[in-house]
Records
---
Amino acid sequence: MRNAEWRAIKSQGGFTLIETLITLVILSIAAIGVLSVFTTGIRISANPVVVDQAVQLAQEKMDTILGDSLNSNPGYGFAYIIPGNYGAETPVTGFAGFNRSVNIYCVTVADLTTNAGAPGVGGCASGYTHVAVTVANAAIGSVKLETVITNH
């Protein structure tokens, strides 16, 4: 009977204490490796609030420029959209960490990406003005908003 009992106990199998400890050590090392990737990604990812503020600041300036292009008062309208009317803001008033700049230049109909020079007081001879508003922040880099305005 003693032999039969010993075989029954031996056949039940399972993990020894050493096997369990080795498994826990290996799983811990693997978990640390996986978690370090996630924590690094979270740490270097852009803050969505800062990105949203940058986009809103760019949109605000673009809306101002588009509004000026539609203004029919003397001295305004399409002829008003010239670089001298929209200076760089370093920093943007009320937003200490943000800088905003505006680039305005004439483009031709054939190639709307070609810089044909800055518009003068009378606007662009081609009738197309490329406007780019860039908002920069140290935490996220820069956000750029672009459009083409026409006087047709």
---
Amino acid sequence: MRILPYILLSGLLLAGAVTADESYHEARRLAAEGKIQPLESILKRIQAVRPGEILEVELEHEGNSILYEIEMLDAQGIVRELKVDAVTGRILETEEE
């Protein structure tokens, strides 16, 4: 799985006006501090239960929660957006795009 290109291309965009580079570093810092799970771990878990091609990843702050929003293309050609709790790794919501 080629994760890094997706991170660099889509950025990990935080809510507000920050650059992809700043948000990428913020996500790495939060993961290094143990405040969120590393994206690599989240993607491995998701791929195990919902295989598909990762199209885009964003890191979002919603209220007191930090979420990974992961857009993926499944084997049936359907684009889905998954909202994943960045702390627990639990899939909170899945919707078709």
---
Amino acid sequence: MKKNEIIWRYILSEGLAKNLKARPQPIFTQKDIAKKFNCSTSTVFNALKIPRKMGAIEVTGRFFRLRDAEKLLLLWATRRSLKKDIIYETSVDLPVRSIESSMPPDIIFGAFSAYRLFYDDAPADYSTVYVYSKHIDEIKKRFPPKKGISNLFVVNPDPFLADFGKATPPVQMYVDLWNLREWYAKDFLRALREKFNF
């Protein structure tokens, strides 16, 4: 995932978390974000250019805040290329829950599995599993390469994803689901939009 996407994820996660709890929107500084993600302030500045032009980010002096979360989320969704980050895929002749429960402990669930884990619910039945992990050797041992329609996908995680726990944060769930072709992704997207109060 690109650096600007990591920055957008952080701003959205913080902004929407506060919004859901009916608290004032957090105020960010480019310097603080640069320090948090070990990048230059010019990298942060460039990540804010398009969101600022489209009114998703409001800049006042040295500070900025999330003004329109939906706009920024949709910008990220259209810029995200989940397919490019997939580092392994295979066909597994097991039910989804069995695949999920057979995963190594260090993976992070994405997409449909992330939603179910995060919200303890699923708005539709699903038949594919997406996980984030750099350790594909262990996953390959448990789920070796097999011909057929792939239903297990391993995605390369960014260095900061683990900060969110065992599932991708809701904003990344949304962006990843936006990029998926499975028909039931729409049901998950609709459910997430309701939780975001868009």
